[in-house]
Structures are given as structure tokens and as C-alpha cells.
């Protein structure tokens, strides 16, 4: 990944451009952007959804983890939902939108969720229910039959063509090391949930209303959020929840040779959050200075 990004940076430099990674650009305007012609479906999306899609000057990080059965995919999909706010809090990097401070750690999701079939999914429980959900939307003309699942843009989704669970909630992250750490966390978490399902250890899926409140806390406060851990209303600092989760997942990452990457998540909990640095630079300088900071964050992490 580091070598790929170095090549992209070299190509960008030839065009007198740079490269940054974050959930939103601090001040760019979507009105100034051109729709890419690399794939005709982008223009089709613009024609179908209009302003709701034209304003999507947002950038997310998707993590795919392979599943060895469709039944396990459904079980992992349903269970990982409750952990999505943790992934979001770790990755949040979008406190600015169109040159304005939003007072959010993650502005990206507030923009993206203006489209249909986005946000937190309901649990499916069974593969047949997942299939039925797609068939219903196809019959209603909401999505196309040949790419049906690709038009479900939820925070996590099943990806039948790849045979994966795909988390989509994370902001793009300025530092490559941090991005790898979060991806490793997702990988180990999916494996752990799959193992628990095989052993019959999973409880019923967490209700959406509880996860939605934890998700909003992560959007608003990042790693400063309080996390609701059960339906009794008990809360813990989200950093404590993440720390405990990393400890639980460590044996799995050790087995897969990625323990150092997973342990980097604990380092992320200790260092100053990227959003705080972006805000401080903006207060003392300008949003242009924020962009230069993001550019250096990427380069120094390669």
C-alpha cells in the first residue's frame, strides 16, 4: 500500500497536485468538481439522484473481510453492527465542510446519508431475508437486478461477488499506519464474530436505536464519546471499550501475524486526535494550512 501511494503521489506531482486522505476536503466545493467518466454509472447516479449525489464530496474507507459461508456472512453482518461506532470514532477526520467548521468529528456521514439505502442496516437474521430485501427493492424499481447489492450503501453490507463483509462507516484516514490499524481491527473482529457464531455464542442482534445513539456520539465527539454498552443505559468511555476490544482480539491477530498492526490501535487512543490537530491549525492559521498538514501526515506515514 505504501508503494502504491508513493506512485500516486509521484503522478500527482507531475500535475502540480498533492494528495490528502480525510473524510471531507476542508474547503473544496462540489460545484467545482467534474463527474468522472471512468465509469458511466457515475453520470447515471447523478442523473438519478440529482443534488443528493452531486454534493458527495466525501471520502470513506471500506474494509472487506472474506466469509466462508453465506450463513456466516449474515451472522457477522448482524453482530458487527454494534461495533461500527467504534470504527467510526477511530477514523473520524472530517470536521470541516465547504470551508466551515461543523463542530462534528465526522461530517462525512451527515452528507452521505442523504442518499437512499445508506446508514445503519437492520439485522437480516437469515440469508433468505437478505435476499428478500434485495428482491423487494428490485421489483419496486429502486435498485437494478444485475447490480442490486452494489446499490445498498449501508454502513456495513454483504458483498456476494467478493464473498465478503464490507464495513463502509470509516472516514478516509490521513495516516496510513492508522488506516492499517483500523483495517486490522475490522479483520480480527469479523473473524472473532465468525468463530463465536460457529460455537453458538452470539446473542440476539443489538437494536438499531441503541447503535444509532452510539453512532451519533462518535460523529459528534470522536474518541471523546461515551458508549452505551447495554440496554440498561450503562455507559463507558469509548476509548475504554476499544481498548478492551483490542485485548480480546489480540490472540486472533497474533495468529494471523498482524498483532503489531492491531496494537497500533491502542497507540491511536493515546495520541492527540487528528481532528483536534486540524482544528488547532485552523484556529491559528487557515484551512490551507490544514490541507498542508494532511498532506504531510500522509507522506510521513509512508
Your description of this structure?
By secondary structure, the protein is mainly α. It has a single domain (2-300), classed as Creatine Kinase, Chain A, domain 2 (2-Layer Sandwich), CATH 3.30.590.20. It is 52% helix and 11% strand. It contains 13 helices and 9 strands. It has helices at residues 2-14, 40-49, 51-54, 70-80, 84-91, 108-112, 127-139, 176-198, 208-221, 238-255, 259-270, 274-284, 287-300; strands at residues 60-66, 96-97, 100-101, 118-119, 153-154, 156-159, 164-171, 226-228, 235-237. It has a 3-stranded antiparallel sheet with strand order 1-7-6, with helices on one face. α4 crosses α8, α8 (176-198) crosses α10 (238-255) and α8 (176-198) packs across α11. The longest helix has 23 residues, at 176-198. The radius of gyration is 19 Å and the shape is globular. The model has no long low-confidence stretch (mean pLDDT 96).
TL;DR?
This protein is mainly alpha-helical and 302 residues long. The protein has one domain (2-300): Creatine Kinase, Chain A, domain 2. It is built from 13 helices and nine strands.
Amino acid at each position: 500500500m505504501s508503494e502504491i501511494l508513493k506512485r500516486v503521489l509521484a503522478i500527482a506531482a507531475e500535475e502540480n497536485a498533492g494528495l490528502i486522505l480525510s473524510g471531507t476536503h476542508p474547503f473544496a466545493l462540489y460545484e467545482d468538481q467534474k463527474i468522472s467518466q471512468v465509469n458511466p454509472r457515475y453520470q447515471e447516479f447523478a442523473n438519478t439522484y440529482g443534488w443528493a449525489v452531486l454534493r458527495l464530496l466525501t471520502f470513506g474507507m471500506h474494509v472487506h473481510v472474506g466469509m466462508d459461508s453465506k450463513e456466516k456472512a449474515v451472522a457477522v453482518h448482524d453482530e458487527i453492527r454494534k461495533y461500527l461506532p467504534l470504527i467510526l470514532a477511530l477514523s473520524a477526520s472530517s470536521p470541516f465542510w465547504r470551508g466551515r467548521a461543523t463542530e462534528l468529528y465526522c461530517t462525512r456521514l451527515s452528507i452521505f446519508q442523504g442518499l437512499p439505502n445508506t446508514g445503519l442496516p437492520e439485522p437480516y437474521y437469515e440469508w433468505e431475508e437478505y435476499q428478500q430485501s434485495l428482491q423487494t427493492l428490485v421489483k419496486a424499481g429502486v435498485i437494478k437486478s444485475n447490480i442490486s447489492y452494489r446499490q445498498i450503501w449501508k454502513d456495513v453490507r454483504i458483498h456476494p461477488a467478493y464473498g465478503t463483509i464490507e464495513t463502509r462507516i470509516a472516514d478516509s484516514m490521513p495516516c496510513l499506519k492508522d488506516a492499517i490499524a483500523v483495517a486490522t481491527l475490522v479483520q480480527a473482529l469479523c473473524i472473532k464474530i465468525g468463530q463465536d457464531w460457529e460455537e453458538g455464542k452470539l446473542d440476539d442482534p443489538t437494536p438499531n436505536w441503541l447503535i444509532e445513539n452510539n453512532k451519533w456520539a462518535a460523529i459528534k465527539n470522536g474518541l471523546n464519546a461515551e458508549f452505551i454498552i447495554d440496554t440498561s443505559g450503562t455507559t463507558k468511555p469509548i476509548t475504554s471499550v476499544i481498548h478492551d476490544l483490542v485485548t480480546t482480539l489480540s490472540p486472533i491477530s497474533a495468529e494471523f501475524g498482524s498483532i503489531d498492526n492491531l496494537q497500533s490501535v491502542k497507540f491511536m487512543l493515546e495520541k492527540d486526535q487528528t481532528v483536534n490537530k486540524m482544528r488547532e491549525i485552523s484556529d491559528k492559521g487557515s484551512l490551507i494550512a490544514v490541507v498542508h498538514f494532511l498532506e504531510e501526515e500522509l507522506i510521513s506515514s509512508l
